[in-house]
Amino acid sequence: MKTKVFLFWGIISALIACSSNSGDDELVTVPENPIQIDDEEEENDDEIEPFKLSELDPSLPSFVSVVDDTPEGMQWVKVDALSDEFEAWDDEKWFNSFWNYGNTPVSMRSENSSVVDGKLNIQATLDEGSSKWFQTARVHSKTKISYPMYTECSMKTSSISAFNTFWLNNGDINDRDEIDIIESNANPTPECSDQTTKPSNYPWTPWDFPTQMNSQYFIAKSGVTERHEDNFDTRMLSEANPNKGKTWDETYHIVGAWWKDARTVQFYLNGEPAGVVTTNQDFTRELELIFDLWTSEECYLGGLPQKEELNDNSRNTMRVDWVRTWKLEEN
């Protein structure tokens, strides 16, 4: 049986689990802010010259063409098993999983994932009359990987209120490592987007979701979970970046993560550094790459779409143009 993987968000002192066998799970949010954006990164705005995403070297991580932070004496070596231009569905690289997020109308099906016109499609469709009316899919890599490595994909999200994700995970809800490169909802519901109805201490910003990256990590051991997030935003990109300020469903964005070592993950967006998370304990597992599309009524996730939106093929599909992965090795 394939290993189940789990993605969920915490609400300050209490964890709301979104897995099919969620249970009591103590959440430990890192007490000191681990998000570290170096001064060098902040200075990159002045160093970056205007560029086009289509002109970035596809044989290397996108940031190498923009701000080359590759360590001296090291090289990026392509991992073919975790890279795909999606000319066709490849059973040697990918598989579907079918566990459902708890307390949601989500139902995972292989029929809702496909490769069409050179892109991996994950589509939300309507099962009218069912309590699991949000039909969708989750796609995993068959190969696992650990640090030091870098992975990125070019993706355009759906335009319904749903989380479009690219993440790494292995384990179960109580014992797992997880790196969420992006969880984006380009069209949260008006109710959830209305900032005036939220308390001043509301810890999430669904009104920013159309451009917010929502990157984070989890390390769960024996039911105790450490997590923290880095909420980079397309509006934070340099003036040189062609995707500055663009929403997730407006165009294709390149999202990536450099898993540097046992405690450090550097995120990237469209070739530029997009925040760092540093853990308090070590990552210890090899992880799968995962894509999925799902929804929840909770406002911190953006709220549920209108059912009729799932019948609109111009809005209901997350698309991945390509995914590319490299290991960092000595020259």
CATH architectural label: Sandwich
Structural class, please?
mainly beta
N-to-C SSE string, H for helix and E for strand = EEEHHEEEEEEEEEEEHEEEEEEE
- Overall 3D form: globular
Distance between the termini: 39 Å
Q: What's the story with the biggest beta sheet? A: 8 strands, mixed
- Please name the CATH topology: Jelly Rolls
Poorly predicted sequence stretches spanning 5 or more consecutive residues: 1-26, 28-45
Description of the structure:
By secondary structure, the chain is mainly beta. It has one domain: Jelly Rolls, CATH 2.60.120.200. It has helices spanning 39-42, 44-47, 190-193; strands spanning 9-11, 14-16, 26-29, 74-78, 94-96, 106-108, 113-116, 119-123, 125-126, 134-136, 138-145, 149-156, 163-171, 176-184, 215-221, 224-230, 253-261, 264-269, 272-278, 287-294, 317-330. Strands 3-16-15-14-13-20-11-5 form an 8-stranded mixed β-sheet, with no helix packed on it. Strands 4, 7, 8, 12, 17, 18, 19 and 21 form an 8-stranded antiparallel β-sheet that branches. It is globular and about 60 Å long. Residues 1-26 and 28-45 have low confidence and may be disordered.
